[in-house]
Design a protein that fits this description.
The complex is a heterodimer of chains A (about 325) and B (about 150).
Chain A (H helix, E strand, L loop, with lengths): L7 H11 L7 E2 L3 E2 L6 E12 L2 E12 L8 H13 L7 E5 L2 H4 L3 E5 L10 H16 L2 H4 L10 H19 L5 H12 L8 E3 L8 E4 L2 E5 L6 E3 L2 H10 L7 H12 L5 H27 L6 H27 L1
Antiparallel strand pairs in A: 1-3, 2-3, 3-4, 4-6, 5-6, 7-10, 8-9
Helix pairs in contact in A: 6-7, 6-10, 7-10, 7-11, 8-9, 8-10, 10-11
Chain B lengths: L8 H16 L6 H22 L5 H17 L4 H4 L7 H18 L3 H30 L11
Classes of the chains: A alpha+beta (about 325), B mainly alpha (about 150).
Chain lengths: ~325, ~150
C-alpha cells in the first residue's frame, strides 16, 4: 500500500485531473491532521494557474486505513452529502475515489473548513450541543439519508447496532472475548423501554467538530453515524470523548440545560455500557490491522489491545454491578 | 541455563527506547510524528515485558479449562450450551465456551447461571484485567510525550 504521507506527487496528479488548471496543480507538503485514528486525515494546499490567474485552494484529504473500525467511506460519504443537503454543517465533499491505483486505498477530498478542532470555548460548546440536538431531531426519513441499516422500531436499532459491532469484533479478534459476548446479550436483554429514534452521529465530541468564533462550522468523522437512540450520542459525548472538558455529571447537567433533554441514571448507565461495548468492538479491528501488517503503526497495537481492554473493564464492571442489584 | 547471544533482544529494545527518547523525540517538531514516536516507545516497552514473561496464553487457557470442567461437572445441563463450540485452538475453544456460558447467565436465573456468575465470571474478569495491565505501557504512551524528552 502506498504511504500517503509521501504521496504528494500522486495527489498533485489527481488534483491536476480534477481542477481546471492551465498546466497542472502543485501540492505543498502534506500536513497530517492529528485527530482520529480511523482515517488518515491531511491538509492539502494546492496552487495552480487558470486562464493565467494564480489560484490557491486548500482541501482535506480523508483516507481509509485497511478497514479500521469496520467502517467504509461510501456510507460516510452518503450520509455527509445527504445531511449537507439539509443545511446541517458538514464539509463539502468534492471528489471521491475508490480506484486503489491512485493512493492504494479509497479516499475522498473535502473543501477545507477554516476554524479549529481544538478545545472549544463555552459559546462553541453550547452551539455544538444545540446542533447535535438538532441532528437528533432531524427528520431522517424526509432527509432520505441512505443509511445501510434502517430499523423498523427503536428496539430494532439497538439489536442492529449490537450485531453490527459484534461483527466488527469477530472480524478483528484473535481469541473470543467472553466479556464482550456477555455484554452483547446484556445490551439486548436490558435495553430501555423508552427508546427514541433519530440520526446518531456515533462519535461526537471535541476534536470531531470545527468551530470558529464560538460557532460550529462543521461536524466531522461521520463513519459511525446511523439511526438509533440519541442517548448513544449523549453518553459518548459525556462519558467518553468529552471527559477532557467536563466530568460526566457536569455533562449530564449541561446537556439538560442546553437542550432540555434529561437522561435518567438508568439510561445513563445503559448507554455507557453500550458505548464502551461499541468502542471495544471497534478497537478490536486495530489488532487485526496491526498483526496483518496492513497498518503496522504502534497506535494500532495500543488501540487493539490496551484501549480495547480498558473499555472491556469498564463495561464488565457496570454489568457486574447489575447482577448484585 | 543457556548462555545468551549478545546483544540480546532486551538489550536491542532498551537501546531503541533510549534512542527514541533522547535522540529522536527532542528533534521532532511535527505533532503526529511525536505522538507516533511516543506510541512506538509504548510498544517497545510492551515487547520488553513480554519477552521477560510469558508470551503464550496457555496458562490462562488452562485456568479457563479447569473452571469450565468444574462448572460442567456440577451442572451437566450446561453441556448443550457448549456443544459445537469452536475448536480452532485450545485457547479459542475455551474462551468460546466461556462466552456462551456468560451470555446464558445474563438471561437466566438458575443455579447454573448463578454458578457461572460466581465462579467463571470472576476468573474471566481477572484475566482481562491482567491482559490490560500487561498492555498498559502502550496506553500510557498513547497520547503523550515523555517529559524528559521535551525541548
Amino acid at each position: 500500500m502506498l504511504n500517503v504521507e509521501v504521496a504528494r506527487p500522486q495527489i498533485a496528479a489527481y488534483l491536476s485531473a480534477k481542477l481546471p488548471s492551465d498546466d497542472g496543480v502543485e501540492v505543498g507538503p502534506l500536513q497530517r491532521i492529528t485527530i482520529g485514528h480511523s482515517r488518515g486525515m491531511f491538509r492539502v494546499d494546492a496552487t495552480y494557474r487558470y486562464r493565467g490567474e494564480k489560484k490557491e485552494r486548500s482541501f482535506a484529504l480523508r483516507v481509509e486505513q485497511a478497514g479500521m473500525f469496520g467502517t467504509n467511506s461510501l456510507d460516510e460519504i452518503r450520509t455527509m452529502r445527504a445531511l449537507r443537503a439539509t443545511r446541517f454543517p458538514v464539509a463539502n465533499i468534492r471528489w471521491v475515489e475508490f480506484d486503489a491505483s491512485v493512493l492504494g486505498t479509497p479516499f475522498f477530498v473535502m473543501d477545507w473548513v477554516e476554524g479549529s478542532s481544538g478545545p472549544p470555548d463555552d459559546a462553541a460548546l453550547r452551539d455544538y450541543v444545540q446542533k447535535l440536538h438538532e441532528l437528533h431531531q432531524l427528520d431522517w426519513r424526509k432527509a432520505e439519508v441512505p443509511f445501510a441499516r434502517v430499523p423498523v422500531v427503536p428496539l430494532d436499532a439497538v439489536h442492529q447496532q449490537v450485531d453490527r459491532w459484534m461483527e466488527v469484533h469477530h472480524w478483528g479478534r484473535v481469541l473470543p472475548e467472553p466479556l464482550l459476548e456477555e455484554a452483547a446479550t446484556w445490551l439486548k436483554h436490558n435495553a430501555p423501554e423508552d427508546l427514541g429514534l433519530g440520526i446518531v452521529h456515533g462519535d461526537p465530541g471535541p476534536l470531531n467538530f470545527i468551530h470558529k468564533a464560538g460557532v460550529v462550522q462543521a461536524f466531522t468523522d461521520w463513519e459511525f453515524s446511523h439511526v438509533g437512540d440519541p442517548n448513544e450520542d449523549w453518553l459518548f459525548l459525556g462519558a467518553m470523548r468529552g471527559r477532557g472538558l467536563m466530568e460526566p455529571a457536569a455533562w449530564r447537567a449541561f446537556i439538560a440545560e442546553v437542550t432540555g433533554h434529561v437522561i435518567d441514571q438508568g439510561e445513563w448507565d445503559y448507554w455507557d455500557v453500550f458505548n464502551q461495548f461499541k468502542g471495544a468492538c471497534a478497537n478490536t479491528s486495530a489488532l487485526r490491522i496491526f498483526i496483518t501488517g496492513a497498518n503496522p503503526a504502534p497506535n494500532m497495537a495500543a488501540i487493539g489491545t490496551a484501549l480495547k481492554l480498558s473499555m472491556v473493564q469498564r463495561l464488565s464492571t457496570i454489568i457486574g454491578q447489575s447482577y448484585v442489584r | 541455563m543457556p548462555e545468551a547471544k549478545h546483544p540480546t533482544v532486551d538489550e536491542v529494545l532498551a537501546g531503541a527506547l533510549y534512542t527514541i527518547e533522547n535522540q529522536l523525540l527532542p528533534n521532532l517538531e511535527d505533532t503526529w510524528a511525536r505522538a507516533a514516536a511516543s506510541q512506538l516507545m509504548g510498544t517497545l516497552e510492551y515487547a520488553r515485558a513480554l519477552i521477560a514473561g510469558d508470551e503464550s496464553v496457555d496458562a490462562q487457557t488452562a485456568e479457563v479449562e479447569a473452571a469450565l470442567a468444574e462448572l460442567l461437572g456440577a451442572h451437566p445441563e450446561l453441556d448443550a450450551l457448549v456443544a459445537g463450540a469452536s475448536s480452532e485452538t485450545p485457547g479459542f475453544a475455551a474462551l468460546d465456551k466461556a462466552s456462551r456460558l456468560l451470555s446464558y447467565a445474563v438471561t437466566h436465573e438458575t443455579a447454573a447461571a448463578a454458578a457461572i456468575r460466581a465462579e467463571l465470571r470472576p476468573l474471566i474478569t481477572r484475566q482481562a484485567e491482567a491482559n490490560l495491565n500487561e498492555t498498559m505501557t502502550m496506553l500510557k504512551r498513547f497520547g503523550g510525550t515523555p517529559r524528559n524528552a521535551q525541548r
